[in-house]
UniProtKB/TrEMBL annotation:
GO terms for cellular component: mannosyltransferase complex; membrane. The lineage of its organism: Bacteria, Bacillati, Actinomycetota, Actinomycetes, Micrococcales. Pathway: Glycolipid biosynthesis; glycosylphosphatidylinositol-anchor biosynthesis. This is Mannosyltransferase PIG-V. It is found in: Endoplasmic reticulum membrane. InterPro entries: PIG-V/Gpi18 (IPR007315). Its main location: endoplasmic reticulum.
Length: 370
């Protein structure tokens, strides 16, 4: 699919017409990660004529470009090739850990098919492009697997690294905190030793600190306390203008923009749609198929959903941003009908193609980034 799209790709801000595979796999945010790997972060935030912060590298966390730069150093590969190699390797590792995680809750065949869905999901091309998603998913799946196995001290490594890979450390801190609360309430029937209590609380605190660390570092280096938040908000300015981040308002702002301005219908239709989607999601969380995944994975999915609802503005990147909810593939994999399973794979492949056409391929001034 990537090769077909590259063969018809016209000249764009990142490549000439008909780019080779590796160049095509490094467009969009891949260039920002390359800037971080080769030049680091600006000490002074770029400002527009109106004095507002402009898009800059502080929105892209350092762990992935650091790993790619290390691979470049020891292999002498160029960025384009090293970045694809790192993403593919972490994608493979993520799939392996995902299978082990599913197998701890579901039957062998169901776990294997859940892994198939994980590998052919609509946004799974992210496993082969210069984005941090595959590295983050590996670390996330490893941390969740260790949580399920109650190996808390081992969790510290992936928890800290993933907080510097993708900005969702606060979501994991919430999930971990809820995990501690749940284990405390069921301690009489499930056991919760003092050693486990101390270890799990430690992981929660470390996750919280790690989640706040990058915004603090950005503020310290640039001298602007809200440098990270101000930088992130520049990506939604084209939609709703310059606004301050007020938690739990972005999705309602998005509903107003997508329905009121883009579709030219009543914004109330957007608000109602959002409420209905949230209600259906909440109901699904209590369905038998999702409950079979276990409390830990459900706590993560709900925590991440709350995090997105609090800070993320819905636009074309939403499909990619939903990838950390991948454990829900375990719920989709449970029907055993062969027709259903073949149909799901074909559907996901079709959605892959649609996602690539809409989000990855560039057509002139493209406002639908992946």
């Amino acid at each position: 699919m990537m090769l077909v799209l590259a063969s018809v790709q016209g000249a764009n801000p990142w490549t000439g017409a008909h780019p080779d595979y590796f160049s095509f796999a490094n467009i969009w945010d891949g260039r920002w990660y390359q800037i971080v790997a080769e030049s680091g972060y600006p000490r002074t935030l770029p400002l527009g004529d109106d004095g507002t912060v402009q898009q800059n590298a502080w929105a892209f966390l350092p762990a992935y470009p650091v790993v790619v730069r290390f691979v470049m150093t020891i292999t002498f590969l160029p960025w384009e090739v090293a970045a694809v190699f790192v993403s593919f390797a972490f994608g493979l590792a993520a799939a392996l850990v995902f299978y082990r995680m599913m197998a701890s809750r579901l039957a062998w065949s169901t776990s294997l098919f859940a892994t198939v869905l994980f590998c052919v999901g609509p946004t799974s091309p992210m496993f082969q492009v210069a984005y941090a998603e595959s590295m983050y998913l590996f670390l996330l799946m490893l941390a969740l697997y260790l949580m399920m196995k109650r190996r808390y001290w081992w969790m510290l490594i992936p928890v800290v690294i993933m907080a510097f890979t993708r900005p969702s450390g606060l979501a994991f801190a919430l999930a971990m905190g809820l995990h501690v609360v749940y284990r405390w309430f069921v301690r009489k029937r499930d056991g919760f030793s003092v050693r486990e209590l101390v270890a799990s609380i430690t992981v929660t605190v470390v996750a919280l600190v790690a989640g706040l660390a990058w915004p603090a570092i950005a503020g310290w280096v640039t001298g602007v306390p809200d440098a990270y938040t101000a930088t992130e908000l520049t990506w939604r300015a084209d939609y709703i203008g310059r606004v301050h981040l007020v938690p739990f308002t972005p999705w309602f702002q998005g509903a107003q923009w997508w329905f009121g301005q883009f579709l030219q219908v009543s914004p109330w239709l957007g608000y109602i749609t959002l409420v209905v989607v949230l209600a259906l999601f909440a109901i699904w969380m209590f369905s038998p198929a999702v409950r079979r995944l276990g409390v830990d994975l459900r706590l993560w999915v709900v925590s991440y959903a709350l995090y997105l609802l609090a800070v993320f503005f819905p636009q074309s990147s939403t499909f990619r941003i939903l990838a950390p909810m991948a454990p829900l593939a375990g719920a989709l994999a449970q029907p055993k009908s062969k027709a259903y399973r073949i149909g799901m794979v074909l559907l996901f492949l079709a959605l892959q193609w649609g996602w690539l056409l809409i989000c990855w391929g560039v057509d002139g001034y493209d406002w639908s980034p992946p």
